[in-house]
């Protein structure tokens, strides 16, 4: 299988589909055979390198169909592919493998945040989590995954859902906190650039320390006077409740460690 040339078709035109297609086009043993999206303009930039279609009657058999679609579209769309004896996988963190309505099914989940307009992402260190309903197809997915990443792991649907939830906490919720910080600074005529070194330091710190050991700040050290000053400052702000709630959680977590 090492020298096998894989024919891949990607369905979708969003963030994951775009970055995955860009990467696959650069791999010599991969043929990005077709890309499908019902809004063909969103995949027009791939037309010189691969066949782009918006009509499933033009769909050709492939080694792997990759459904890089919204979660709610995966099951109904996969029903349209039931006549193909092709391994059909999705790229979702929260959809079970069994929700794919084809005989050969699996998951090909790159665990990273993707933005369509961001420069190309280095897949080499992105964990790719795979699953399939039989060993030959699992081997096929592994064959593809190791061409992209050094971090390939087999996980089941429940483990993947837990990882997806962890990602929401570690990335989406954290990014929301960045917005709260930006709002507070803007109200005082200050730039968000001031906290960027702090953000980077924390991100680097958790690469070598467990999060509970990396936690700092007034709540972590039990500095109630500073906390009261902060709450007084935020008294008329909608961020008051958020600050108060998170502070209480950190205080309780530290009490439990003691």
Give an overview in words.
The chain has 258 residues and is α/β, with parallel strands linked by helices. It folds into two domains: 6-155, Rossmann fold (3-Layer(aba) Sandwich); 160-257, N-(1-d-carboxylethyl)-l-norvaline Dehydrogenase, domain 2. Strands 3-2-1-4-5-6-7-8 form an eight-stranded mixed β-sheet, covered by helices on one side. 41% of the residues lie in helices and 15% in strands. The chain has helices at residues 15-24, 71-78, 135-148, 157-187, 196-205, 211-214, 224-233, 239-257, and strands spanning 6-11, 30-36, 51-53, 64-67, 87-90, 105-110, 128-132, 152-154.
Which descriptors would you attach to this protein?
N-(1-d-carboxylethyl)-l-norvaline Dehydrogenase, domain 2; 8 helices; alpha/beta; 258 residues
Count of domain modules? 2
> Please, how many helices?
8
Average of the residue pLDDT scores: 93
Q: Note the overall shape.
A: elongated
The CATH homologous superfamily name of the largest domain equals: NAD(P)-binding Rossmann-like Domain
What is the CATH topology assignment of the largest domain?
A: Rossmann fold
Number of beta-strand segments: 8
């Amino acid at each position: 299988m090492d020298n096998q040339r894989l024919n891949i078709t990607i369905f979708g035109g969003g963030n994951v589909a775009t970055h995955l297609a860009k990467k696959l086009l650069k791999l010599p043993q991969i043929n990005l055979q077709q890309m499908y999206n019902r809004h063909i303009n969103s995949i027009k930039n791939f037309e010189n390198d691969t066949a782009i279609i918006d009509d499933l009657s033009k769909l050709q058999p492939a080694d792997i169909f990759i459904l890089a679609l919204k979660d709610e579209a995966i099951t109904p769309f996969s029903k349209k592919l039931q006549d193909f004896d092709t391994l059909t996988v999705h790229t979702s963190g929260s959809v079970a493998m069994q929700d794919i309505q084809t005989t050969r099914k699996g998951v090909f989940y790159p665990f990273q945040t993707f933005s369509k307009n961001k420069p190309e992402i280095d897949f080499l260190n992105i964990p790719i989590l795979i699953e399939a309903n039989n060993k030959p197809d699992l081997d096929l997915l592994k064959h593809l995954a190791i061409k992209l990443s050094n971090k390939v792991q087999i996980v089941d649907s429940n483990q993947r859902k837990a990882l997806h939830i962890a990602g929401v906490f570690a990335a989406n919720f954290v990014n929301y906190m960045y917005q709260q910080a930006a709002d507070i600074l803007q109200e005082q005529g200050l730039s968000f650039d001031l906290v960027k070194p702090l953000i980077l330091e924390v991100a680097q710190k958790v690469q070598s320390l467990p999060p509970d050991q990396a936690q700092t700040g007034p709540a972590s050290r039990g500095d109630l006077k500073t906390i009261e000053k902060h709450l007084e400052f935020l008294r008329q702000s909608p961020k008051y409740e958020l600050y108060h709630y998170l502070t209480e959680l950190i205080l309780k977590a530290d009490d439990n460690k003691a």
